[in-house]
Structures are given as structure tokens and as C-alpha cells.
């Protein structure tokens, strides 16, 4: 259900140490909402926010969290209950963008990938898919326990409509999130005395966050003379809209570019339009790197040695 306001409410935001999630946490605080910052660590700008809201109302608290570890995800809710009583808003926002440590084109067991060929998992999928699914389960349980309505806001991507050979794991993860969010649309109209729970997602374009700026191998795909960024603050504003606006019912996936927001249809969607913040001009350079990797002797076999 749409909240009339977030003033006096409480949110849990994973990945709040930087980027879109930090901007969302700051926006919620500015509207009077308490926030549990859950992340491995806080970047300096995030630490400043937590320090600024350490006392008074609203308030921010930091809970160190590795989102790959389910007991630490549960601890986010325990901390929230201890500090604030209960959560009203949950954003399982932590994510990675085909990082070198868990990259489809750098198979497990080959440098610099940290995925092990004996661990039976990709860290990128644990972070981007398993973590938000598990947090959603925990959030639903939390709302039922406290008998209160809730909002769960996910972060998908235009990659779910605009797949590319550069980022197969990321694309798969965002397809999963969009489909997962749509599958939970019915929670906004439950039967009997079950509280109403709205599950939605934003699907941003190319957002200027550390997922790009702290990764030189990806940043080189962008020509800032011709390419536009989506500001993370703009994405955060649309995330707040998903909580406050009646028209954004459960199952909504809202595409966000620079100065642009559009509902993504479940079927027969035309795909992302050609608006600022939707593309990177040097994408072809990255594709050439893929061919070079595949041309290397023994690609994908190092993990068997």
C-alpha cells in the first residue's frame, strides 16, 4: 500500500554505504524516517550521514552486514527492533555489476576471480539475487510479526531489458529481480487479516555510483563528453515515489533515466527508449575484450587444474 508519508517510520537499507542506497537512506532521513544502514563498511560520505543522525529523531544506525551471510541479514532486523521497534520499509539494495572477483568472463579458479571452482556458487549471484530474495522473506515475516503494512523496494536495471555480452551475470540477476518483484504483486491485496505489503523495483540506467567510478575497467566504456549519467539522487527520488504514490502498485518495475521515469510493462514492453543516461558509447571496446579473453588458450579450463 502507499504510505501517506515516511515521517516517523523506519527503514532497513542494505548497501547503504554508498551509491543509490546511500542517497535513498539520506532522502528517507530528510523526510523524518529512521534508517538502519546495512553494509560491509561505510564510505566516508556515508559515515558522515550516520554521524549526523546519531542522536535525535530521525536517527541512523550502522549494522555491519555481509549480505551473502543469512545470519547477518537476520541481524539487520534484530538491530532494527532493538533500536526502533519495527521496520516499515525494507530495501535489499546491495548489488555488484559484473565485478572482477565474480565475473562470467573470468571463470572460477582463474585470476582475478575469487569464485572457487569447489564452492558451487558465484558471489555476484549471492549478492544480486539470493540476498534480495532472502531479505524479502525476512521482511514479510517481520511485517507479519508486527502486524503492520510494509513496503519492499528492490533495485533492478535496464539490463533486464537491454542485455549485453559484457555482463551476463548482472543481466541474469536483474531479470531475476524484475520477475521476482512481479510475482509478489498480489501481496498488496492479501486475504483475511494479513497486512498489506507492496513489493516494487526501480530499473535505473547508467548511474554515477562507485559501481562505475571505482572500477577503471568499466569507466573506460564511458565518454563523458557524449554520455549522460543518471544521478543516484534521481533514482532515490523514484524509490520514494514507489512508497508514496498510489499508482505504483505492487509488482511495479519503474525505469529511471536522466529526467525520465517509465513503467516497464510485463509483456510486449518496447524496451528502454533512447534518452540520456541509458547507454555508454564505448561499449564496443568492452565487447572486444570479451573476444580477446575467449581467444586465449584454455579459456574456462584453468579452474579444472
From TrEMBL:
<comment type="similarity">
    <text>Belongs to the short-chain dehydrogenases/reductases (SDR) family.</text>
</comment>
<dbReference type="GO" id="GO:0016616">
    <property type="term" value="F:oxidoreductase activity, acting on the CH-OH group of donors, NAD or NADP as acceptor"/>
</dbReference>
<protein>
    <submittedName>
        <fullName>Uncharacterized protein</fullName>
    </submittedName>
</protein>
<dbReference type="GO" id="GO:0005737">
    <property type="term" value="C:cytoplasm"/>
</dbReference>
<keyword id="KW-0560">Oxidoreductase</keyword>
<dbReference type="InterPro" id="IPR036291">
    <property type="entry name" value="NAD(P)-bd_dom_sf"/>
</dbReference>
<dbReference type="InterPro" id="IPR002347">
    <property type="entry name" value="SDR_fam"/>
</dbReference>
<dbReference type="Pfam" id="PF00106">
    <property type="entry name" value="adh_short"/>
</dbReference>
<feature type="region of interest" description="Disordered">
    <location>
        <begin position="268"/>
        <end position="305"/>
    </location>
</feature>
<keyword id="KW-0521">NADP</keyword>
<dbReference type="InterPro" id="IPR020904">
    <property type="entry name" value="Sc_DH/Rdtase_CS"/>
</dbReference>
